[in-house]
User: Fold this.
Amino acid sequence: MIDLYNKKKCSVIATKKVDKKDVTRWGILSIKNKIKNNFIITDVVEKPSVSKAASNYAIIGRYILPYTILDEISKLKPGKDQEIHITDAIKNLIFKGEKFYANIFKGKYLDCGTLSGYIRSGIEVYRYLK
Assistant:
């Protein structure tokens, strides 16, 4: 991610492919110009329906963002599920012309977003610490 940031001088978001049936659990990217493990982000949608998901590339919570994201977050009203979503601030910046790139995550990803994922993550961390 840092290499991509240094090369493109713009925001970078880590992503990974998820099963199409699971897109409702994630912020999902609209993309163009995929080259190797990177692509330009043209839009983001928080937890879209399966039929409305533009891709199955999910945001996995690793970001290199501009300082202006703080101003965008401060302007947000609660969205889906009455939460403030960083994806809404990112979407606003994209539509204002800021460039965002996605970087396909390499390495082990531990998903704590479900009970079973949380338990598996705990076991994985425990094994690592042993």
User: Anything to note?
Assistant: Residues 115-129 form the longest helix (15 residues). DSSP finds four helices and five strands in the chain. The beta strands are 11-17, 27-35, 38-46, 57-64, 100-104. Residues 2-129 form a domain with the Spore Coat Polysaccharide Biosynthesis Protein SpsA; Chain A fold (CATH 3.90.550.10).
